[in-house]
Design a protein that fits this description.
125 residues, alpha+beta, two-stranded antiparallel ribbon, 5 strands, globular
């Protein structure tokens, strides 16, 4: 039989990302692509479909397709977290909002959004 390592290796070689109609499919994980997004807010990045990267993207797509609304990627600086997400957002035609976190970031800074309404700043959950 095939070992777990051999199975993963075969899976890495076979995985592809493709858009068919309104659906993005990455290695069998599927999600509907966005509509009515502002094209200026959709990232466009140079990305190489390396199988290991596509496996990570498939994991994210699976989570999103199951109803997860937020994704947090943790890793050392310069390991490609933004690149992965930007490529996924480009494929999905979803807008990106960039938030730089630091040691003083609070929960309210992440959950409350400022918007301009009739010339005044309004804070919304």
């Amino acid at each position: 039989g095939e070992s777990a390592g051999e199975c993963l290796e075969r899976e890495q070689v076979d995985i592809v990302a493709k858009v068919s109609g309104e659906v993005l499919d990455i290695g069998g994980a599927q999600i509907r692509i966005g509509r009515n997004a502002d094209p200026r807010r959709i990232p466009h990045t140079k990305f190489f479909d390396i199988p290991r990267h596509l496996l990570r993207l498939r994991e994210i797509v699976r989570d999103l397709s199951l109803g997860e609304k937020h994704v947090l990627l943790i890793g050392n600086q310069g390991t490609g977290k933004n690149k992965l997400v930007d490529h996924l957002l480009e494929l999905l035609r979803w807008e990106r909002e960039y938030i730089q976190l630091h040691r003083d970031t609070t929960v309210s800074a992440l959950t409350v959004q400022a918007s301009l309404l009739d010339g005044k700043v309004v804070w919304e959950d």
